[in-house]
Give the backbone structure.
Amino acid sequence: MRKILFITVMAVAALFSFASCDKEEEPANPNPYSVRFGYIRGTINGTAFCLQNKEAPGETYITNGNIYTEYPKLGINSYGTNIPITKDQNEFVYGFVFHLVPIKAGAYDVISPNHEMFHNRVCFMDKRDTNNEKWYEPLKQPVKLLINRAEFVDSSNIPFIEGVINGVLYNQENLNDSIIVENVEFGVHY
Protein backbone atom coordinates (compact mmCIF):
# COMPACT_ATOMS: atom_id res chain seq x y z
CA MET A 1 0.00 0.00 0.00
CA ARG A 2 2.83 2.41 0.86
CA LYS A 3 4.56 1.69 -2.44
CA ILE A 4 1.35 2.39 -4.37
CA LEU A 5 0.88 5.66 -2.45
CA PHE A 6 4.51 6.57 -3.07
CA ILE A 7 4.24 5.85 -6.80
CA THR A 8 1.01 7.87 -7.03
CA VAL A 9 2.52 10.86 -5.23
CA MET A 10 5.64 10.74 -7.41
CA ALA A 11 3.57 10.58 -10.61
CA VAL A 12 1.37 13.52 -9.58
CA ALA A 13 4.38 15.59 -8.53
CA ALA A 14 6.12 14.94 -11.83
CA LEU A 15 3.01 15.92 -13.79
CA PHE A 16 2.46 19.17 -11.92
CA SER A 17 6.04 20.30 -11.42
CA PHE A 18 7.00 23.56 -13.04
CA ALA A 19 10.15 22.02 -14.37
CA SER A 20 9.01 18.64 -15.59
CA CYS A 21 10.45 16.92 -18.65
CA ASP A 22 8.87 14.75 -21.30
CA LYS A 23 10.34 11.27 -21.67
CA GLU A 24 11.97 12.20 -24.98
CA GLU A 25 13.18 15.59 -23.77
CA GLU A 26 16.67 15.70 -22.35
CA PRO A 27 17.49 18.31 -19.72
CA ALA A 28 18.92 21.44 -21.28
CA ASN A 29 22.67 21.63 -21.41
CA PRO A 30 23.25 24.99 -19.76
CA ASN A 31 26.55 26.64 -19.18
CA PRO A 32 28.45 24.12 -17.05
CA TYR A 33 29.66 26.96 -14.83
CA SER A 34 26.28 28.60 -14.26
CA VAL A 35 25.60 29.57 -10.68
CA ARG A 36 22.36 27.64 -10.25
CA PHE A 37 21.90 24.42 -12.14
CA GLY A 38 20.40 21.07 -11.34
CA TYR A 39 18.54 18.10 -12.70
CA ILE A 40 17.46 14.67 -11.54
CA ARG A 41 15.86 11.97 -13.67
CA GLY A 42 15.42 8.24 -13.57
CA THR A 43 13.12 5.55 -12.22
CA ILE A 44 12.01 4.96 -8.64
CA ASN A 45 9.88 1.87 -7.96
CA GLY A 46 9.15 1.58 -11.68
CA THR A 47 7.95 5.18 -12.06
CA ALA A 48 9.99 7.42 -14.37
CA PHE A 49 10.46 11.07 -13.48
CA CYS A 50 12.53 14.01 -14.66
CA LEU A 51 13.00 17.40 -13.01
CA GLN A 52 15.32 20.21 -13.91
CA ASN A 53 15.65 23.69 -12.58
CA LYS A 54 15.82 27.06 -14.23
CA GLU A 55 18.86 29.26 -13.80
CA ALA A 56 16.82 32.01 -12.14
CA PRO A 57 16.77 32.28 -8.34
CA GLY A 58 13.54 31.08 -6.79
CA GLU A 59 12.87 28.58 -9.56
CA THR A 60 15.47 26.09 -8.48
CA TYR A 61 14.48 22.52 -7.68
CA ILE A 62 17.95 21.24 -6.97
CA THR A 63 18.93 23.66 -4.26
CA ASN A 64 21.18 22.35 -1.55
CA GLY A 65 24.81 21.64 -2.12
CA ASN A 66 27.45 22.43 0.40
CA ILE A 67 30.76 21.31 1.69
CA TYR A 68 30.08 20.04 5.17
CA THR A 69 33.66 20.13 6.27
CA GLU A 70 37.23 20.26 5.06
CA TYR A 71 40.25 18.67 6.71
CA PRO A 72 43.19 20.13 4.74
CA LYS A 73 45.83 18.72 7.10
CA LEU A 74 44.51 15.24 6.36
CA GLY A 75 44.00 15.92 2.65
CA ILE A 76 40.28 15.15 2.96
CA ASN A 77 37.38 17.12 1.58
CA SER A 78 33.84 15.93 2.08
CA TYR A 79 30.78 16.94 0.09
CA GLY A 80 27.19 16.56 1.13
CA THR A 81 24.10 17.47 -0.83
CA ASN A 82 20.35 17.13 -0.75
CA ILE A 83 18.71 16.55 -4.12
CA PRO A 84 15.02 17.39 -3.71
CA ILE A 85 12.66 15.47 -5.99
CA THR A 86 9.35 17.17 -5.30
CA LYS A 87 7.92 19.73 -2.94
CA ASP A 88 4.66 20.38 -1.15
CA GLN A 89 3.81 23.93 -0.06
CA ASN A 90 7.42 25.05 -0.52
CA GLU A 91 8.77 22.23 1.64
CA PHE A 92 10.78 19.48 -0.02
CA VAL A 93 9.10 16.16 0.62
CA TYR A 94 11.34 13.62 -1.09
CA GLY A 95 15.00 13.75 -1.90
CA PHE A 96 18.29 11.95 -2.22
CA VAL A 97 21.04 12.78 0.22
CA PHE A 98 24.62 11.75 -0.24
CA HIS A 99 27.84 12.43 1.57
CA LEU A 100 31.02 11.80 -0.37
CA VAL A 101 34.57 11.52 0.98
CA PRO A 102 36.78 12.54 -0.77
CA ILE A 103 35.24 14.66 -3.51
CA LYS A 104 36.31 12.96 -6.72
CA ALA A 105 34.89 11.23 -9.77
CA GLY A 106 34.65 7.47 -9.59
CA ALA A 107 32.48 4.50 -8.70
CA TYR A 108 31.40 3.97 -5.10
CA ASP A 109 29.71 0.94 -3.54
CA VAL A 110 27.85 2.28 -0.53
CA ILE A 111 27.24 -0.80 1.56
CA SER A 112 25.60 0.22 4.82
CA PRO A 113 24.65 3.37 6.67
CA ASN A 114 27.55 4.91 8.47
CA HIS A 115 26.96 8.37 9.81
CA GLU A 116 30.56 9.19 10.61
CA MET A 117 31.99 12.18 8.77
CA PHE A 118 34.72 10.16 7.02
CA HIS A 119 32.43 7.63 5.33
CA ASN A 120 30.34 7.67 2.18
CA ARG A 121 26.58 7.73 2.56
CA VAL A 122 23.56 7.57 0.25
CA CYS A 123 19.99 7.76 1.48
CA PHE A 124 16.49 8.76 0.42
CA MET A 125 14.25 10.89 2.62
CA ASP A 126 10.46 10.86 2.80
CA LYS A 127 9.25 13.89 4.76
CA ARG A 128 5.52 13.78 3.96
CA ASP A 129 4.72 13.20 7.63
CA THR A 130 6.99 15.50 9.64
CA ASN A 131 6.21 13.54 12.81
CA ASN A 132 7.27 10.31 11.14
CA GLU A 133 10.05 11.05 8.65
CA LYS A 134 11.40 7.99 6.88
CA TRP A 135 14.98 7.45 5.84
CA TYR A 136 15.89 4.75 3.33
CA GLU A 137 19.48 3.52 3.16
CA PRO A 138 21.39 0.59 1.68
CA LEU A 139 21.28 -2.31 4.11
CA LYS A 140 21.28 -5.69 2.36
CA GLN A 141 23.40 -4.96 -0.71
CA PRO A 142 25.49 -2.04 -1.98
CA VAL A 143 23.97 0.95 -3.71
CA LYS A 144 26.05 1.95 -6.72
CA LEU A 145 26.98 5.63 -6.84
CA LEU A 146 28.88 6.65 -9.96
CA ILE A 147 30.25 10.19 -9.88
CA ASN A 148 30.95 11.15 -13.49
CA ARG A 149 32.10 14.65 -12.73
CA ALA A 150 33.29 16.46 -9.61
CA GLU A 151 34.86 19.75 -10.54
CA PHE A 152 35.57 22.92 -8.63
CA VAL A 153 35.46 26.26 -10.43
CA ASP A 154 36.87 29.62 -9.37
CA SER A 155 33.47 31.23 -8.86
CA SER A 156 32.27 28.73 -6.23
CA ASN A 157 33.60 26.69 -3.32
CA ILE A 158 30.93 24.07 -4.06
CA PRO A 159 31.76 21.61 -6.83
CA PHE A 160 29.81 20.92 -9.96
CA ILE A 161 28.90 17.28 -9.47
CA GLU A 162 27.11 14.80 -11.75
CA GLY A 163 26.41 11.14 -11.23
CA VAL A 164 24.11 8.14 -11.30
CA ILE A 165 22.55 6.16 -8.42
CA ASN A 166 21.39 2.51 -8.71
CA GLY A 167 20.26 0.08 -6.05
CA VAL A 168 17.75 -0.76 -3.36
CA LEU A 169 17.29 1.42 -0.29
CA TYR A 170 15.51 0.11 2.84
CA ASN A 171 13.44 1.91 5.44
CA GLN A 172 15.52 2.06 8.62
CA GLU A 173 12.47 1.23 10.74
CA ASN A 174 10.82 -1.40 8.50
CA LEU A 175 13.02 -3.60 6.30
CA ASN A 176 9.94 -4.76 4.34
CA ASP A 177 9.59 -1.19 3.01
CA SER A 178 12.12 -0.55 0.23
CA ILE A 179 12.72 1.74 -2.73
CA ILE A 180 14.22 0.51 -6.00
CA VAL A 181 16.33 3.20 -7.65
CA GLU A 182 17.23 2.66 -11.30
CA ASN A 183 19.54 4.88 -13.33
CA VAL A 184 18.75 8.03 -11.38
CA GLU A 185 20.99 10.64 -12.99
CA PHE A 186 21.63 13.94 -11.25
CA GLY A 187 23.64 17.09 -11.64
CA VAL A 188 24.12 19.86 -9.09
CA HIS A 189 25.98 23.15 -9.20
CA TYR A 190 24.91 25.73 -6.68
Summary: Confidence is low (pLDDT under 50) at residues 1-21, 54-79.
